[in-house]
Design goal:
By secondary structure, this protein is α/β, with parallel strands linked by helices. 34% of the residues lie in helices and 28% in strands. Helix 9 (246-254) runs antiparallel to helix 10. The chain starts with a helix and ends in a 6-residue tail after the last helix.
Length: 320
């Protein structure tokens, strides 16, 4: 039993934080498996940052227990934080420092030796894609570069768990893609990543697991696939063919998970009774019947819809 517990990078039980009459986090049970990229989702003001601050020991919980990397977190124990890398929302760094200097300052704060800093800092600058810009002043960095140096700072002490709070806030689409790719790289290095976001699209691109909260209350927490599958109502697959044949139409209708097939020229709208990803089965069936697929997409089973449904339900049936 003890071994199973160690597999969790984060485990909170009944976590509650109140600010006078406002309950920011309400009996939250958050479980983050090791070696996963876990998306922590919710609208602005849902309680994500409060939860993260408790995880990294910056705030004290009013109730409940918090375990990070198998150790119980109590606000005043700094050493338990050394295995966690943390990037706050919109990090602010001194503008008069160069990128490499900033990392050196943080490295000293972590108690790294000069030798360790010399080895680690160039590696990280390379990893986050700032090679050649490490001696530029942070004041001259774009927002995307500032986020990247923030991520480098979070990785300095080679943590087991990296917590990023809204890492693509204020970034343009290119910057967002870069930060997403960076998160995949971090995970490949064997670290667990907990990323908070209000951008469902972002989480869908990179996360293996998702937790959705609203008004401090947990609405859903599972693998990305299972949470995406919580949608009520049928999922729809749109298929575009080079040309339609009756054999293809008949073959698709034979699939056990197909409810209806509506044809419009060379396009098929296939309604499913499942939220599993069945694109492979559909394409195989069509190909076997001699059809050639130009394009295929699935509608209805994305996180955006699940999120809206859950949040609407949670607000007593009214979407805000």
């Amino acid at each position: 039993m003890g071994f199973r517990k160690m597999e969790l990078a984060v485990e909170t039980t009944g976590l509650t934080k109140k600010y006078s009459s406002l309950i920011a986090v309400n009996k939250l049970d958050l479980k983050v498996e090791r070696n996963s990229i876990h998306g922590f989702l919710g609208p602005n003001g849902a309680g994500k940052t409060t939860t993260i601050k408790i995880l990294v020991g910056l705030l004290k919980a009013d109730e409940g227990t918090v375990k990070v990397l198998g150790q119980e977190v109590r606000g005043d124990q700094a050493d338990s934080r050394l295995n966690i890398g943390y990037m706050p929302e919109l990090p602010k760094f001194p503008k008069h420092l160069k990128g490499a200097e900033l990392l050196d300052v943080y490295g000293r704060m972590y108690g790294m030796t000069e030798q360790q800093r010399k080895e680690q800092i160039p590696k990280l600058i390379d990893l986050v894609g700032l090679k050649g810009r490490e001696n530029d002043l942070i004041g001259k960095y774009s927002k995307g570069m500032q986020q990247r140096i923030g991520i480098a700072q979070a990785l300095l002490n080679n943590p087991e768990l990296v917590i990023l709070d809204e890492p693509s806030l204020g970034l343009d689409p290119v910057g967002m893609v870069e930060v997403r790719e960076l998160m995949k790289v971090i995970a490949e290095e064997g670290m667990t990543v907990l990323v908070s976001s209000h951008l469902l699209f972002e989480v869908e691109q990179i996360c293996s697991h998702v937790t959705i909260i609203n008004k401090g209350t947990l609405l859903a927490s599972d693998t990305l696939q299972k949470v995406s599958g919580m949608m009520t109502g049928p999922a729809i697959v749109h298929v575009e063919l080079t040309k339609f044949s009756d054999a293809v139409g008949k073959a698709v209708k034979e699939l056990p998970f197909v409810l209806t097939v509506v044809r419009n020229g060379n396009n098929l709208r296939i309604e499913l009774n499942t939220h599993e990803d069945v694109r492979a089965e559909v394409s195989q069936k069509i190909t076997q019947a001699g059809g050639v697929i130009v394009g295929m997409n699935v509608k209805g089973s994305n996180l955006e819809d699940v999120f809206l449904q859950l949040v609407t339900k949670n607000q007593g049936g009214k979407a805000q």
